[in-house]
Design goal:
The complex is a heterodimer of chains A (392) and B (77). By secondary structure, chain A is of the alpha/beta class. Chain A contains 12 helices and 18 strands. In chain A, 34% of the residues lie in helices and 28% in strands. In chain A, helix 1 runs parallel beside helix 4 and helix 1 packs parallel to helix 7. The chains are: A alpha/beta (392), B alpha+beta (77). The complex binds flavin-adenine dinucleotide and iron/sulfur cluster (2 copies).
């Protein structure tokens, strides 16, 4: 037997990595969590919306994590038609608006409390398999060293390299990344009980504009666009919107980011390696939300790490049970929402107006997302016929 | 491991030059890293490093960058 420094090394301390570290450490494994940034959770690359259910499922929620609670979402079509949805219906990204600088650190702290070692300002620069294990090269404030483990969990976000090192090609195609800019704005007026979404090419080609309240007069106002749909870049589209709608606001923080909207990948495992969160391209292709799935994936990967250590089997075949877990939980939603997203990309603003008008009279307190889609398909059979198998 | 690039530096569309990042615009968000299929860039904390040997000037990063911080500049060939 060779010596290992750790049972599992987790690369990246976002929600996915910290959740995996917490779960694995609670199960009694020797865990190292590394994060290349000097501050966990900063700079933020997120609009911070997450559903209440997911947080409640996994944590004792602390007040300090939550900037604002909302009751639902309002969606605006290009002609101004509005649809109000309850939080339950709007799904994974609506309910709480987090303070991720606090939340991400709280998660890392939970991992540490469970026994994980944490190193910040530490980057994984490469990885190679050795006999029945992995050796990860690290760089920490100029110092280089390596660590050996049985398993590596790649939770290294949108820029993930761990998958590529292990032979899983996670390169995101240029038509499958939402290019995003967001401002934290203050001194603006909006209904702070709701998150707000503006759809259509008029606002955001291939994406949408969002406003997520962080308090009464303060909100994350951001945009995602598909680079294949516009040459101008997200910032100019967002600036135009803000000039029209919130000229009185002040910008107190600038955020940029890319969200992979690839839909489910075939496998998130290789020998000795599992990928979670954005690294596994688990963000929702319709909404761009990835916090919930990163938390779930981290939890599943932590559980499977424990099973693999117990069985002393780190093969791809064994780790496939992680694939099964995330696919059973949210794989189908990723697949379905990828199809809806593709469909929406083909719609012009007129069509979006028409679809939104066709359902604007419904009482959305009472109706589920599935029911709503069925009604929409029934009312617009020619436009939406190819989606019927997803909902009927 | 990686197949031959579709566009080589000396390839069909006569691309010469190199990728430069405007550090004043860059928000170190790593969108450019996610779309590079030639493993030619890496985000070192707040600094995007380009490996000119690997870069094919495919422009994927230029298009993905939310801050429009990436440009190809002409170089003497
Ligand atoms: C503008 C924007 C708005 C968004 N809004 C929402 C939203 O409202 N709701 C929602 O649910 N999702 C949203 N998302 C998506 C969400 O931010 C991500 O899905 C989520 O952060 C994924 O978590 P993660 O743990 O997988 O990765 P991350 O949170 O990205 O964490 C990855 C970590 O790995 C580190 N890392 C990378 N490489 C290395 C390395 N080699 N060595 C060491 N560390 C490394 C990084 O520094 C980073 O801290 C948004 C994204 C963007 C860009
Ligand atoms: S995509 Fe643009 S802003 Fe983001 S890290 Fe790359 S160069 Fe910087
Ligand atoms: S131009 Fe293409 S190959 Fe070069 S760094 Fe950008 S994405 Fe990578």
């Amino acid at each position: 037997m060779q010596d290992y420094d750790y049972d599992v090394i987790i690369v990246g301390a976002g929600p996915g990595g910290s959740m995996a570290a917490k779960t694995a450490a609670e199960a009694g494994l020797d865990v190292l969590l590394i994060e290349k940034r000097q501050e966990i959770g900063a700079p933020v690359r997120c609009a911070e919306g997450v559903s209440r259910e997911v947080l409640e499922e996994f944590f004792e929620i602390e007040k300090s994590w939550i900037a604002k609670e909302v009751v639902g979402a309002i969606i605006y079509s290009p002609d101004g038609t509005q649809i109000k949805m309850t939080a339950k219906m709007a799904g994974n990204e609506v309910g709480f608006v987090l303070e991720r600088k606090i939340f991400d650190r709280a998660l890392a702290r939970m991992a540490a409390r469970a026994g994980a070692d944490v190193l910040v300002k530490t980057t994984a620069t490469s990885m190679k398999r050795s006999e029945n294990g992995v050796e990860v090269e690290l760089r920490r404030m100029g110092e280089r060293f390596s660590m050996k483990s049985k398993l590596v969990i790649g939770a290294d976000g949108v820029e993930s390299r761990v998958g590529k090192w292990a032979g899983i090609d996670t390169t995101v195609k240029i038509g499958e990344i939402e290019s995003c800019v967001q401002y934290l704005m203050t001194g603006i007026e909006f209904d702070a009980d709701y998150t707000h979404f503006w759809l259509g090419n008029r606002y955001a080609p291939g994406g949408y504009i969002w406003l997520f309240p962080k308090g009464e007069n303060t909100a994350n106002v951001g945009i995602g666009v598909l680079p294949t749909k516009t040459k101008k870049g997200p910032k100019s589209h967002l600036d135009k919107f803000i000039e029209e709608r919130y000229p009185e606001g002040e910008i107190i923080e600038v955020v940029a980011g890319g969200v992979p909207v690839t839909g489910p990948i075939e496998t998130a495992v290789a020998d000795n390696v599992m990928l979670v969160g954005d690294a596994a391209r688990h963000a929702d292709p319709m909404t761009g939300g990835g916090i919930a799935n990163a938390i779930k994936g981290g939890y599943f990967a932590g559980k499977v790490a424990k099973e693999a250590i117990d069985a002393n089997d780190f093969s791809k075949e064994f780790l496939r049970r992680y694939d099964e877990m995330w696919k059973n939980d949210f794989g189908e939603t990723l697949r379905r929402n990828k199809i809806i997203q593709k469909k929406m990309l083909k719609m012009d603003d007129e069509t979006i107006n028409k679809l939104m008008k066709s359902i604007s009279g419904y009482d959305l307190e009472q109706i589920s997302f599935r029911r709503l889609m069925i009604e929409m398909i029934k009312k617009n059979p020619r436009l939406l016929w190819d989606l019927r198998d997803l909902f009927f | 491991m990686i197949a031959l690039p579709e566009q080589k530096k000396d390839g069909k569309n006569n691309e010469t030059g190199k990728i430069v990042i405007d550090r004043y615009k860059c928000a170190y968000c790593a969108a450019c890293i996610a779309v590079c299929k030639y493993d030619a860039n890496v985000l070192i904390e707040t600094f995007v490093y380009i490996d000119e040997e690997k870069c094919t000037l495919c422009k994927a990063c230029v298009r993905a960058c939310p801050m429009q911080a990436i440009e190809i500049i002409e170089t003497e060939s």
